[in-house]
């Protein structure tokens, strides 16, 4: 069975930038529902026990939309929790800062691109910082779509821009949410580890292995 991973911080750890109420609703209800449905649908598809990454790719390949939507959302949310950390964490440095500078010129320009992508994304989806053969890019994906099905792209960070990610705290101000997310709780240490993994230097993020 796939399990709901614990948050890597307390419910109140993100302060004014994402409330405990939002985290409890988002993690304990929305994310849990995706995991529960994935367990049911993966078993029916004969994929129970396989790594969740494989389930997402196989569901996409076989056009099993219900399984894909739930499995990909379970994966995306787990990656999203890791993409955040309590306010006051380290800014980009080292190889990550060099990659940002090469691709965007500076962190401020990356922020502008990221906020525009996230705020202007139509309807539900995700705003990503990814790396590939052309260096760092900012992209967005619709609904449950994720980078697991995008050849040549490796995710560094993601921000959830579905309304349930921000509405309790920001109402309809998605742009304000993405701006404050980027400035205050984006986990640049996690992004740096993902960048290293993309260059075969360490393990990249994987969803917790299913239990018997």
Q: Can you characterise this structure?
A:
- With about 210 residues, the protein is mainly alpha-helical.
- The protein has two domains: about 20-80, Orthogonal Bundle (Helix Hairpins); about 95-200, minor pseudopilin epsh fold, CATH 3.55.40.20.
- It contains eight helices and three strands; from the N terminus they run αααααβββααα.
- The chain has a three-stranded antiparallel β-sheet with strand order 2-1-3.
CATH class of the largest domain: Alpha Beta
Task: Quickly count the helices.
Answer: 8
Overall geometry comes to globular
Strand content: 5-15%
Query: What is the CATH T-level topology of the largest domain?
Result: minor pseudopilin epsh fold
The oligomeric state is single chain
Helix content: 40-55%
Distance from N terminus to C terminus (CA atoms, Å) equals 6 Å
Q: Please name the fourth-level CATH homologous superfamily of the largest domain.
A: Iron/manganese superoxide dismutase, C-terminal domain
Sheet having the most strands: 3 strands, antiparallel
Low-confidence stretches: none
Let me know the number of strands.
3
Count of structural domains? 2
- The CATH architecture category of the largest domain equals 3-Layer(bab) Sandwich
Estimated structural class: mainly alpha
User: What is the N-to-C order of secondary-structure elements (H for helix, E for strand)?
Assistant: HHHHHEEEHHH
Instruction: Give average pLDDT, whole number.
Output: 97
In which order are the strands of the major sheet placed? 2-1-3
Which value, in Å, is the CA radius of gyration?
Answer: 17 Å
